[in-house]
Amino acid sequence: MSTVADFFNLKPIKMFPIYAIRGLTNYPYGQCFGREFTIFRKDVILVGRVPIDNNMIYWFCEQPYIPKDEGIWKNNEVIRQYTIELLSNYPQEIQEMAKYADINSLSFTQLSYRTPWDLLTGTFSRGSVTVAGDAMHIMGPFLGQGGSAALEDAVVLARNMAARCFKRRVGEAFHEFIRQRRMRVVRLSLQTYLIGMLLGSCSCLKKIWIILLKLLFPNQRSHMNYDCGDL
């Protein structure tokens, strides 16, 4: 727990029963995947691909797995070979993402999150102190919205500070920032939480998570139809 988290008495973040391999792959002659965030799922393995520019893509591979010897996952070549093996039944373009990934970009980590109910009830601003981004709403990468939510935070925070700070009302600006952002990040967190539980649960519980997802988020892409406003 950080000093700021202690100041707000925030509850510790939780860990998904999921481990993620992440990396960057450069295509010198240009990537052919366009600009769309794409997800592929087969059995218990989820693969995501996010184009960064015309040449670079960010990708992740997730699975419910507990490594026996965590030390070996600090070796990036081991991570690469393991990922190539893991994706052997996927299309060639997916396998090549791992095969030609920048070796220094690879990581193998357990995914963490702040629970939606902690976001709903927690205190995230007090006086002239507040939190934003992952410090407030760390979530699984299943929707590809973690970075976007942090950028939204920046816009809303800057807008509130501009409107109030010249009057020396910093605390009021921070309080209003949290008020405006809370339900947006609660919904994102809840959707990623349900997807994470679905991916990491045993088969007997999967139906529960599927039902909850369909009830609460009938439009699985509704999180993208959001405008945080102008700066």
Structural overview:
It is a single chain. The protein is of the alpha+beta class and 231 residues long. 43% of the residues lie in helices and 19% in strands. The protein folds into 2 domains: 16-112, D-Amino Acid Oxidase, Chain A, domain 2 (2-Layer Sandwich); 116-224, no CATH class. The chain has helices at residues 3-8, 76-86, 92-99, 116-121, 134-137, 146-164, 170-200, 203-216; strands at 14-26, 38-42, 45-51, 56-63, 107-113, 125-126, 129-130. The strands form 2 sheets. A 5-stranded antiparallel β-sheet has the order 2-3-4-1-5. Helix 2 (76-86) packs antiparallel against helix 3, helix 6 (146-164) runs antiparallel to helix 7 (170-200) and helix 7 packs across helix 8. The longest helix has 31 residues, at 170-200. It starts with a helix and ends in a 15-residue tail after the last helix.
Write a compact overview of the structure shown.
This protein has 231 residues and is of the alpha+beta class. It contains eight helices and seven strands; from the N terminus they run αββββααβαββαααα.
